[in-house]
Amino acid sequence: MDPSPGFKWRKYGLITLTSISIIWTIITFIIVCSLAEKVAEETHKEHPDIKVETTKKAVIIAVGIISSFSIAISSIGLFGALKENYCLSFTYSIFSLISLIINFTRLFTQPIYWVSFLIRLGIFATTVLFVIDLRRMRVASNNYA
């Protein structure tokens, strides 16, 4: 069975979106690390018992862990789309759903998250449609074998 007409659009859309996500995460990590000194100094002013170096290290470690996790999730989506792998793409769609739910809950506290929510909704929809196409192709290839 041939994939649906929009299959390649969804595939390359996911490749593009996950690549942008990885690049954006790396840029954010670099920016936060460059601002870690200022954050540490502000924290030290408010809480003199906390050392500047301790705060700076904590900020860098925390952002490093979060960035690594984000890159790992985006890599699952990237490789799932590149290899047209059903399992990786399905796993990424679950992570996308979790991210969508988190962004939805943020809407109630800060309305500025509407933009992020709409972007996540688009990514989730693209991922789900891609996974559905992969499933159809997988079932069709099993029926012909």
UniProtKB/TrEMBL annotation:
Keyword set includes Membrane: yes
Ranges that cross the membrane: 12-37, 57-79, 86-105, 111-132
Compartments it resides in: Membrane
Membrane topology, record value: Multi-pass membrane protein
Keyword GTP-binding: no
Leader sequence segment: none
UniProt cross-references to Pfam families, sorted A to Z: Tetraspanin
Record keywords: Membrane, Transmembrane, Transmembrane helix
Domain of life: Eukaryota
Protein name: Uncharacterized protein
Lineage: Eukaryota, Metazoa, Ecdysozoa, Arthropoda, Chelicerata
